[in-house]
Design brief:
By secondary structure, this protein is of the alpha+beta class. It has one domain (24-235). It contains 9 helices and 7 strands. The chain has helices at residues 3-22, 47-53, 69-76, 78-83, 85-110, 170-173, 178-198, 204-213, 221-235; strands at residues 25-26, 31-35, 43-46, 125-128, 148-152, 154-158, 164-169. The strands form 2 sheets. Strands 1-6-7-4 form a 4-stranded mixed beta sheet. It has a 3-stranded antiparallel beta sheet with strand order 3-2-5. A hairpin with a 7-residue loop joins strand 2 (31-35) and strand 3 (43-46). Helix 5 crosses helix 7. The protein is globular and about 45 Å long.
Length: 239
C-alpha cells in the first residue's frame, strides 16, 4: 500500500481518539434532591446538605439579613482558614469566580438588549435548561424517600488536570435558596480540588465536607479535624 495512503488511513483511525483526549471531559458535579414534584410542597435541596441533616443530628445554617452567597462561603470556610489559609483563600477565589459568572449569565439572559457591543470574557460557568444524571460521581449516597428523586445540578467539564468549566442546571439553580446555592458553589470548587490533586473518582468526601461546613457545629477545631479524617478515610475507599 502506498505510504501516503497508509498515513491518511492511520490519521483517520486515530483522529477520534485524539479529539476525545483534547476535548472537554465530563467529571460529575453537584446533585440536588427534588421532592414532591408538581405539588405545593415541591422542594429542591443540595444532596450534600440533605445527607448532613437526614438523621436529625445536624441543623442547616441560616443566612443572616443582607448576606449573599460569598458571605456564607467565607463564613463557613473559617475553620479551614485557621489551619490552611492558602487553601481557604484559593477555594474562595474560585467560588467568587463561579458566583460572578452565574450572576452575569442570569443578568444577560434577563436583559438581552443590554449586551455590550464588545463580547464579555468567556466565563467558565454556563447555564443549561437541563442536565442528564451522571451516576459515576458518587460511591455511596443516603437513601431518599419514594416521593423524591436525584437530579443533576451541575457538571464539571475538564480541559486538563487543573482546568475545568462548569455547567449548571438553570431550572434547579433558580429553585434553590441562598444557603443551598452557596453550598453548591463550594461543592464545585472543593470537588475540582479533590479531583485535581487527590485524583478522587467520587464526590463522597466533598459532600461530607460541604455538609458539615453548612450545618451547625462546623465552626470548631474538633469539627475541622473530623472533616479531614473523614476525607482521608473516604479517599482510601474504605466506605
Amino acid at each position: 500500500m502506498n505510504s501516503s495512503i497508509s498515513f491518511l488511513l492511520l490519521t483517520a483511525l486515530l483522529s477520534p481518539m485524539s479529539s476525545a483526549r483534547a476535548g472537554a471531559r465530563e467529571a460529575g458535579g453537584a446533585i440536588a434532591v427534588h421532592c414532591n414534584a408538581g405539588t405545593d410542597h415541591e422542594t429542591y435541596e443540595l444532596l450534600d446538605l440533605y445527607e448532613a441533616t437526614a438523621k436529625g443530628s445536624r441543623v442547616l445554617i441560616e443566612a443572616w439579613k443582607g448576606a449573599d452567597r460569598l458571605d456564607l462561603i467565607e463564613w463557613v470556610m473559617s475553620p479551614i482558614a485557621m489551619f490552611d489559609w492558602s487553601r481557604a483563600s484559593n477555594l474562595q477565589e474560585n467560588a467568587k469566580s463561579i458566583d460572578h459568572d452565574l450572576g452575569q449569565s442570569l443578568y444577560l439572559a434577563a436583559h438581552p438588549s443590554r449586551r455590550p457591543v464588545e463580547p464579555l470574557r468567556v466565563g467558565k460557568v454556563t447555564f443549561s435548561d437541563g442536565l442528564e444524571r451522571i451516576h459515576s460521581d458518587f460511591h455511596v449516597a443516603t437513601p431518599i424517600p419514594a416521593n423524591c428523586e436525584l437530579v443533576q445540578l451541575a457538571v464539571q467539564k475538564w480541559q486538563d488536570r487543573t482546568t475545568s468549566s462548569f455547567v449548571f442546571n438553570k431550572q434547579v439553580w433558580l429553585k434553590l435558596d441562598l444557603v443551598n446555592q452557596a453550598a453548591a458553589i463550594l461543592h464545585e470548587v472543593i470537588y475540582q480540588e479533590d479531583r485535581a490533586y487527590n485524583h478522587s473518582e467520587y464526590s463522597d468526601a466533598t459532600r461530607y465536607e460541604v455538609g458539615v461546613l453548612f450545618t451547625t457545629g462546623a465552626q470548631s477545631v474538633g469539627e475541622f479535624d473530623a472533616i479531614q479524617g473523614a476525607k482521608d478515610y473516604l479517599r482510601e475507599g474504605v466506605r
